[in-house]
Design a protein that fits this description.
single chain; 167 residues; three-stranded antiparallel sheet
Length: 167
């Protein structure tokens, strides 16, 4: 013989009916939320990928800038080295060095024994819509290590040490 179900509430429901009703109420509340965690997880993955992509492109822009600066420095040194051949010979050497560095020599001129160059390069991929990266450099001989020389550069060279000053 089974005992009669015990009443659990004032409404006279049995304990089994009450638990079953609670499950139904929780189930109906959750039915509209099914799959929400998947959507949030997918959105989080997309956000992380976007941030990672932006950081990668920023790194590519910085690398391009550094490469252009290096190409300008080397092109200026090459032009200064061949300054004795005249502007045409010096700039031809600077152009060759810039091309070997993957950049393009945009301007080159000699002022006395000083070589002044400007080099440009397009950044990779979608960064090219922002324009080219440019760098300018100047190279030339110093007057002497023991003397002060400004050579019109805004820096003083004294005893092999460079001291930068503003004009």
């Amino acid at each position: 013989m089974t005992s009669p179900p015990r009443c659990d509430s004032a409404a006279g429901r049995s304990r089994g009916e009450h638990a079953s009703g609670r499950r139904d109420m929780l189930r109906s509340r959750r039915e509209g939320d099914e799959g929400v965690a998947t959507v949030w997880a997918a959105a989080a993955v997309v956000a992380v990928l976007l941030v990672f992509s932006a950081v990668m492109w920023l790194g590519a822009a910085v690398i391009t800038r550094h490469r252009v600066t290096g190409a300008a420095d080397l092109a200026a040194l090459a032009a200064a080295t061949y300054a004795h051949t005249g502007e045409a010979g010096a700039c031809a050497r600077a152009r060759r060095i810039a091309e070997l560095m993957g950049a393009e020599l945009t301007t080159c001129r000699l002022r006395g024994w000083d070589a002044l160059v400007r080099v440009g390069k397009d950044p990779p991929g979608p960064l090219s819509v922002f324009g080219r990266a440019f760098a300018a450099a100047r190279a030339g001989p110093i007057d002497s290590v023991g003397e002060r020389s400004t050579n019109g550069r805004g820096s003083e060279i004294q005893s092999g040490r460079t001291v930068i000053r503003r004009r």
